[in-house]
Amino acid sequence: MLQHRDAELRMHAHIEEHNRKIRGVPQRDLIKNPYTQEEIEKQIVDAINFRESIKYPINDKEYYNHIDVDKVNDLSGFPKKIPSFAKQVDIHLKPPKAIEDGRYIQVSFTGKPSELKPYIQDAENHAKFIITKGQAERVSIKPYEDVKTNYRKYVSTILPEEWIEVTNTFNNMYQYKLALSNENIKRQVNRELSNQKNNQMGFDLEQDASQLSSDKVLSNDENKALQKKYLGYYSYKEVKRPFNAEYTFYIFKFDYLYNMFTVAGMAVNPEQTRVIYFLHTVQ
Q1: From the centroid of its chain, how far is CA 34?
Q2: What is the pLDDT at residue 22?
Q3: Single pTM value for the model
């Protein structure tokens, strides 16, 4: 754990150096070298695409099957593919463009106890420790193996409290579609052209309150087509379900870095008919 503290200090130093370099870059003189209308429009469209796309988690099981788990360190211990026998498959991955968002990753499926037995045994082989949700409320840990600190946290506070069930209804793309409408783009381009004359480029991408107050629900077919066009993957509505005290957690990974706990592992329900692989990050 002390090695993690050294890594944290190096990360702080790297961030400070990065920020120093950014502060040293001269700002563009908007009077002598103004942005063209085409440049402004491209920046606005790119920013809208980024802002909107990170709202849509990836929960299509076919997407997961194309991931090479062996090349993703955080997914060590996760299944390489969703097994053919799996029922009620619930995937939750952060959007590709999200950096700070999406701090919970999940791969879950159900099956008969005999079908899931090999996965549970494999989780036991990967586990650093095994604990039930109920036991985790009574066991505390230190972020570092340092006898000089009394800081501890109960294991239950760093484990996920809920798992995600994925529905078959596509997430609504109406606000995304509205944000990229010709009317909205033109309005924002004109505003930024006006701001530029005063050397005050702001790129305020918030939509009018009158537009945001009405969130029209598009049809499943229209949402599917828009997601394919703008996201490149499918995103469905989700429902959060609580972990009860009888769930058993197999912890593969436990890190403390940059004031954040990262825990990876697998949870199994008491009947051993559902496995839930997770990667969870919390302050």
Answers
A1: 36
A2: 47
A3: 0.78
